[in-house]
Amino acid sequence: MPGHRFVYGVAGTVTGLEVVTDKNSFTYEELLQCAHGELFGPGNAQLPLPPMLMFDRIVRITEDGGEYGKGEIVAEFDIRDDLWFFLCHFEGDPVMPGCLGLDALWQMLGFFLGWLKQPGPGRALSVGEVKFSGEVKPGATLLSFHIDVKRVIKRAFTLAVADGYAKLDGTRIYEAKDLRVGLFPEGLKS
Predict the structure, then answer these.
(1) Where residue 4 falls among pLDDT bands split at 50, 70, 90?
(2) Which residues are catalytic?
């Protein structure tokens, strides 16, 4: 993104590499580091690269916050009229696909597990319930995503379960219950 600079923070270690885990917010450049496998170390949680990276920054991440006291992540996505999906979905009636908002919530939950220093690449596993009560169209300015972690289960692989929602310019438009993401160390992926 123009005007951004790379920021490298240091804390903790995963597979011998220094990673950022003591931070409670992340810039776009740091999210790109994660997409390149540089933030949590090779073979661990990664975000997708743009255009599939569905938020521009994480403004808050905590291990004990949120509705259930088990973790919270808040991310923001700047809505611009020239975003790639407005050009193709749909011609003459541009709207952000709701599934991209759901994917943003899964991305955040996987990032949370990497931030907790859990090993292995991540995969979205399921969602219990999804509700769309609004849509993202050109002219909007800010889509904020919120995750409330319900539990993290650490065994041979790590599983997170959370509820999430999205607000467009302050109005709730998406809700998801029982999002599930897993991190699977090598050898455990199917």
Answers:
(1) very low
(2) 89
